[in-house]
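Hi W.,

Here's what went into the run:
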Amino acid sequence: MNRYAMLTAFGQDRPGIVAALAEGLFELGCNIEDTCMTRLRGEFTMMVMVRLPDGLSADQLASRLTPHTSPLGLTVLCREVPARAAERGSEPDAPVFMLSVYGADHPGIVAKIARVVADHGGNITDMNTRVIGAEDRPVYTMILEVQMRAESQPAALGHALDGLKPSLGVDLTFRPLEQVRL
Amino acid sequence: MGFCDNLLIVAAQPILLYPDPALKAKTARVDPANPEVAAIVQDMLDTLKASPGVALAAPQIGRLVQIIVVDVSRKKGEQGHGLVVLLNPHILQQDGPRIIREGCLSLPDYTGNVLRYERTLVQGLSPDGLPVTLATSGFEALAFQHELDHLDGRLFLDRIESLSTDLFRRKS
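Here's what came out:
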């Protein structure tokens, strides 16, 4: 039975971080499965799902990576994840929607939007937020990918989101992402 | 042209899956007068009929030639131009960019967000060699764009656009 670990790493961005992490994992016999890496402003952030070799625990992985990661000043966390969550499966065939939200920056936008999505049975499967705009007039922007369970109602969610616009002071669009198989 | 040799066997062929090299290969233009073309078209039609899809390009059955078959009426609620067989097709113009989530018979169980166009004007030859120009839109336009990519050895993976990085790319 395969065993998997989720590794998260972050630290000040500089060239060579991915190379150092990947080399360390390779030398320890780990197989990189799926990865998500980006920079949040000047900070390097990465999440890697790895398949562990026999005899290596997730805790051991974190400590044995230290020689590779500490010279780069990286913070590395590692936890084992259940195989049933880590094994490859095909995407569920639920309809996908994109939700764009933007407006003058103030606290609470994400919390209010995400709560409405959750209460309507929407599952947030991807999310990016950025503060853009001029220094003195920051604009908060957020793009969410939302999967709707079959029994939940996208129209009701769209209506509820529209209802948030005046109180949150945001503009938003909620639209289906057309999926085609050719 | 590198035609395969079992020309007399007309039957549904297996749809090749990536990483089969045929899916990344260059394709040759065809001469409608060549009798081998009709055999390939028939194989493609049989294969399409046996598949869950609405369109096929010749490389997907291992023929490195510029032939596509499209029939969006195989999908419920779609009409388009019905069954279209096009030789040596190319896109004359397209407009109305949109991001859609696309999947491919040759890369099952995976989809990606790609930039496509709402309307596409396609030109090519019918199987009997007559010039054809088709104005397509919506799902049918997407199908033509997808199949024409196959003739260039291009998969949707070559077109993936990242909403997050593209939309929010900062000026450096």
